Amino acid sequence: MRTISLLFLALALPAFVQSKTDKDPQPFMRIQETAEGEIQLQIAMRKLVPTQKADAPPIWLVGVAHLGSKAYYEIIQKHLNEQDLVLFEGVGFHPDKASRLEGKRGAGTFQKGMAQDSIQKDMAESLGLVFQLGAIDYDRANFLNSDMSAAEFMGHFQPNGRNSILSGDPAKDREAKQFMATLAGTSLASKILKGFMKLLGHSPKFQGMARIVLIETLGTVGNEISNTESLPEGMRKLMKMILLKRNKIVLNDLRRELSREELPNEISIFYGAAHMPHLETKITKSFGYKSSKDTWLTCFSVRPDKQGLTKTDISFVRRIVGIQIKKHLKR
Questions:
Q1: Average pLDDT score, the chain
Q2: DSSP 8-state symbol, 58
Q3: Does the pLDDT of residue 138 top 80, yes or no?
Q4: Whole-angstrom Cα Rg for the chain
Q5: pLDDT given at position 230
Q6: d(C-alpha 90, C-alpha 23), whole Å
């Protein structure tokens, strides 16, 4: 379950729940169940409109999970293609900070083939889904990578580096290193999991149960920016880097684009859904915006009747997921 939890973190960065107030952003993820029994993970595209400058463009917060159905990504792609500017997530689309800051549009050095050898792609295929990096066309004139370069990201994992999140204490650094190994697919547990998924990936029942695990996990804890103070030191630094430092890049890029003499008609921020509550809070407070409307899209779903799942199976999966979530929240 530790490896599964790390994979969920890698796929959509679900964080640890903290208390909410009425002023906090509304959820970007939700679980819906239809009259026919279909269980859906839905993610919002939220439109923000200006409250101070009438000529400022609307901003769409396009939350996303990193795996989903092909139809889901086709709808996202259509929306993004219609935008004047898309600030998009993607570590390593540029090799270093200097090349990132040049501000060239498109996919940088990224090519779709680079997504082929990843545990996220293996997991997506085993669940009958597709991996975001292989499904979205990033080589677009309106796309601007707004994320860490490869060198910036890896610099956080270099011992004794200026921006390193590693303390040098093996015990404190264990979970951060495990996360990176899981993300890269180099850990022994990841390799075993890959084989397990390939073995059972063609089983409709396995796919259904695994999808429910993801739906319940992401739908339950995927809306919150992490309460980092409750985490071990290594994971606290990791979460701040993965979420908040990368969000800072987005906000800096957005500030630059909104200061231009010729403003775009519409801007979309295309990022993992777990980043969105923090981004919405910062944009509404610092840039003068408010939430206008939500468009909810089904990322992927489960049809228990078509995948051989009984009510007992569903209850069992939900109970196990609930136990794991409570276990993490108490840490």
A1: 82
A2: P
A3: yes
A4: 20
A5: 54
A6: 30
Residue 18 — pLDDT band, cuts 50, 70, 90? very low
Q: How many CB atoms lie within 10 A of CB 286?
A: 11
Find the helix packing angle between 119-126 and 188-200, rounded to 10°.
Answer: 20
pLDDT tens sequence across 83-93: 999 999 999 99
Question: Residue 50 phi/psi, 5° resolution?
Answer: -70, 145
What integer pLDDT is reported at residue 219 of this predicted model? 84
Between strands 39-50 and 29-33, the pairing is: antiparallel
With contact defined as beta carbons under 8 Å apart, do 225 and 274 qualify? yes
106: tokens are 């498109």
Domain count, the chain: 1
Domain extent at residue 247: 2-329
| Length of the chain, in residues | 331
- Between residues 314 and 321, which one has the greater pLDDT? 314
**Contact between 175 and 232 (Cβ < 8 Å):** yes
First to last CA, the chain: 15
Q: Which residue has the tokens 């084989």?
A: 195
